[in-house]
Predict the structure.
Amino acid sequence: MALKPTTKKTFLMKDGAKMHYAWVIMICAFLMLCACLGIGINTMQVFIVTLSEVYGAPITAITTGLAISYFCLFVFTPVAGRVLYKNDVRKVVLILCVIQFIGWMLLPVSKTLGMYYVANVVLGATSGFYSFMIAPTLINAWFAKKSGTALGITVCGTTVGSGVFQTLAGRWIMVLGYKTALVILGIIMIAIQLIVMGLFVRSKPADVGMIPYGYHDVSEAERTLAEKELNAGFTQKQAAKCGWYYLVMIYVIILILGVCITTQVATFAQVDFGFTVAQAGAISGVVWWCGGVVGNLITGAVTDKVNVAVGVTISVVIGIIGLVIWASGGCVGNFGLAMIAGVLFGFLSTMIDMAAPLLTRKLFGMKDYTRVYSKVAMFVPLCSCSIGMLLYPNLFMKTGSYHTVLIIGICGAIVSTIILFILNGVAKKYEAKRQAEINGEVAAAE
């Protein structure tokens, strides 16, 4: 029996269209990350000094609010997995964007640190859904093939949004004042989400009588195969009994040792290399704008052509070269070399957004993907906060240099690569077994 639409189609879903609607979903997910994370979390860094002056509080009191936001992100990531498993993604996001907007609009009316912290709780809680869950859930539901490329493009939304809106926020604060800047950013954030999610996004191809990208036609056999692939794999309880599940979590923690150096780039560029604030900002910027974006795109393409281990490893190795250049001491006073190292390190800096979701899908399938992946994803904000905001700054305070931090980052990247190839070998066996079972069921049904 053919799949029947359960949700109204959008006006872009035309019969005989040359472009599969999955690519529209990818563009929507990209824009959503631009707004939700590019504004909702990352743009707050631009307001730190201003808010410190407004509240008459030290900068550490303001950054504590960001730490609270990260902690809430950690707590709500597994909650997001359960909610998205039971509910329509589109409806969940439409509700979330309103809650996030309310939390954001508390900032311009806040007169005390207490209210500022409450706003960060709301922003962190909603980001628990956006940061690591919604985009991979949509991409994995709509793409049977080229999911690596699609996810690589999608996660660039955070990077691009951060760069664009941080730049605009800085100018608006100077020209219009911080309150007006916050209001404008809040309106942009909710407007993008309401338009994208309300008009264009549909949670699954089956909701509108379609099949994921990668199938040849909409025949009965193709629909049956698509449905069975979406229901193949581990449940959360089955994954919890599998030792490889915990190795994926360990892999994420160790990889973050290298990735988290992004939080310290602007600081050690000034302290260890002797650059000005403007130069340090430029180095930090190329990590995201150049290395991060290109790294995501290359990793996604190679993952689709070969496998996730090779795709991620290429970017990690390039990133390690950047770390080695920084750690060698040759960048002291050499701005050009430090910039080149920043571009190279950028390839590694965003790999946690690529490696974890792609590896989880390859190992455990799509049957219970949101709940399975949510337990893995929750370690990202937890470790980013504890390592990037606590461990690394304290190591600097004790040693007076970031050299030790860079060495730890290099070692973490190398060890994580070894673990990745082990997991990829296991994933190939699991994937082959699932595919054999699906093909057998389809053949038996025919």
Remarks:
- The domain at 22-215 is CATH 1.20.1250.20 (Growth Hormone; Chain: A;).
